[in-house]
Amino acid sequence: MSYDLKWLAVALLSSTVLLACGSDTGDGENQWLFGRWELAYNPANDDEDVLWFREDGSVVIETVNGREIPGRYWVRGQRLDLQLMLSNRPLEVSFTISPDHERLIYEQTGAYYEHASP
User: Fold this and answer.
1) CA pair distance 36, 1, nearest whole angstrom
2) Global pTM value
3) Number of domains in the chain
4) What CATH number is attached to the domain comprising 78?
5) CA–centroid distance for 92 within its chain
6) Distance between CA 53 and CA 26 in Å, rounded?
7) DSSP classification of residue 58
8) By residue range, what is the domain housing residue 11?
């Protein structure tokens, strides 16, 4: 199997597994998530990207240099999982949702996003 086909197989398998895990996206329970989220605390001085969550389960990351990175998201309890397509390769990112739904916390760095607008 060629290198490109292996990545495609991994992407398809990852998508299938995530979809089979009881995903919650576009229901009324997750209204708090929809809209624009901005980086509010950035201890690692990473790029200050903006996250856009849509009711249909899609997410777009707007980078500081104007790129848009599309993906999908799933809410599972206090966890938010994103699967993004970066240079035609899947990238999975997870956040912890604060109990009050005011912050999305990236555990690897302690950075967090706050809801800016619906």
Assistant:
1) 40
2) 0.75
3) 1
4) 2.40.128.20
5) 8
6) 10
7) E
8) 3-117
Closest to 73 (Cα-Cα) out of 10, 13, 12, 30: 30
Give, in order, the Cα–Cα distances in Å from 103 to each of 1, 36, 84, 92: 42, 12, 20, 19
φ, ψ of residue 42 in degrees (nearest 5): -140, 70
Burial class (CB in 10 A: 0-12, 13-18, 19+), 27: exposed
Give, for all 118 residues of the chain, the pLDDT tens digit.
444 434 433 343 444 344 434 445 555 789 999 999 999 999 988 888 999 999 999 999 999 999 999 999 999 999 999 999 988 899 999 999 999 999 999 989 999 999 997 7
Residue environment code for 52-89, b if the CB has 16+ CB neighbours within 10 A, otherwise e: bbeeebebebeeeeeeebebbbbbeeeebbbbbeeeee
Residues sharing a CB contact under 8 Å with residue 107, sequence separation 6 or more, in sequence order? 94, 95, 96
